[in-house]
Design brief:
8% strand; 147 residues; mainly alpha; 6 helices; single chain; 3 strands; elongated
Length: 147
């Protein structure tokens, strides 16, 4: 008995699959801006000191600290939104990593592939782990999963 031929999967189909998983798992990510926050704090404190002497340093440090903290807080965005905004090179990296995970599967089209993956907790967890690893290591993001 002959197995059905496997259709080559396209990068956009893999990105849609990863988006579907991230939406189902309610994955969100925020980018860490602690370095920029510290830089802003230092610059504002320095400017305060130049303008107002020691009292200006205190005020500049307080204002800069608040600005730095605000920058660090950065809002969490849905991972699916982040994925669709990635440059092609990073999407290709995700495509390559996801393809390695799904390579044993036999499917004829993107719809069948999505059904296979969404029906398998193990595959979803593998792809989600790969996605979290990519977001934290490659993009320096903090990832939250609520489902």
């Amino acid at each position: 008995m002959q197995r059905p031929a496997r259709m080559p999967i396209m990068a956009k189909d893999i990105m849609k699959l990863l988006c579907a998983i991230s939406e189902q798992r309610k994955m969100k990510a925020a980018f860490k801006h602690s370095g920029r926050g510290a830089l802003v704090t230092g610059i504002v404190a320095f400017m305060g000191a130049l303008v107002g002497g020691p009292p200006g340093l205190a005020v500049g440090g307080a204002v800069g600290g608040l600005l730095g903290a605000w920058m660090r807080s950065g809002g969490f965005k849905p991972v699916s939104q982040i994925l669709m905004q990635l440059p092609r090179a990073q999407q290709q990296t995700l495509f390559n990593e996801a393809t390695a995970i799904i390579s044993p599967l036999m499917f004829t089209d993107a719809t069948q592939l999505t059904s296979l993956v969404m029906g398998s907790e193990a595959l979803q967890l593998q792809l989600m782990g790969m996605l979290v690893n990519f977001l934290t290591k490659e993009l320096g993001a903090e990832v939250r999963v609520t489902a």
